[in-house]
User: Fold Ribose 5-phosphate isomerase B from Leptospira ellisii.
Amino acid sequence: MKKIGIASDHGGFELKEFLRTALKEEAEIVDYGTKDESSVDYPIIISEACKKVLSKDVEGLIALCGTGIGASIAANRLSGIRAALCHDQFTAEMSRRHNNANVLVLGGRIIGKELALNIVRTWLRTEFEGGRHERRVNQLETLN
Ligand code: RB5
Assistant:
């Protein structure tokens, strides 16, 4: 069973809570907050959770905010994080196969619960293809 983190601001809180419960049988989920719907700043909560991926406390992270945009921008500021904002199963699959995304970002105010769950399931089950994609993913780390 994969050990996966989950983190959101208030905009992603409701979807985070749904996913945390729904995924119990298929992954060990570590909740990095937020704990309720009071307003919090996504750059802080998401970047702190991303550090748990970099330290290998968890194998990957599901990150949520209202749109998914702020969480994506915050996550991708950290070297070694490859965060993919996905609204469908195809991009979730490709984010693993081609980009080796270690953070899946969802917009809590954008997509429905069942679609989000299917996106997460696809993301969890899909492996990185490596090969030419490995070269490209490595090049990302030379950009800053
Ligand atoms: C919070 O209101 C909202 O701005 C945040 O969740 C996110 O959508 C930012 O990109």
Summary: The beta strands are 2-8, 27-31, 60-65, 83-85, 103-107. The chain has a mean pLDDT of 97. The longest strand covers residues 2-8. The helical segments are 13-22, 42-54, 69-76, 89-97, 113-125, 132-140.
